[in-house]
Amino acid sequence: MTKAQIKAAIQKVVTRVFDKKYNDTTITKLMDLNEQFGSGTRWCSYRQNLIEIIKGGDKNAIDKAFNLYEEYYKTDGAQRVLDEIVGSTNYLNF
Prior knowledge:
The protein is rod-shaped. 81% of the residues lie in helices and 0% in strands. The chain has helices at residues 3-22, 26-37, 46-56, 59-91. The chain has 94 residues and is mainly α. Helix 1 (3-22) packs antiparallel against helix 4, helix 2 (26-37) packs antiparallel against helix 4 and helix 3 packs antiparallel against helix 4.
């Protein structure tokens, strides 16, 4: 694999993760669930919304909340890894 091919492959992944992160609506959906099934408050915190939904006790809402929470953290984790990779490759004059 050439340097150009590696750069293109990394750029493709970076673009996909950036688009997913930029268009992320998980916090809004979590707020909606908390408003309806939790404390009724729209917290700006993933964790606080999740806690309040769990306290509300609706099993379906809790399952949806955990799925949203997991989706967000997968995307966030991917972005953090890519930040490190891009930083390292820029250091190598990619």
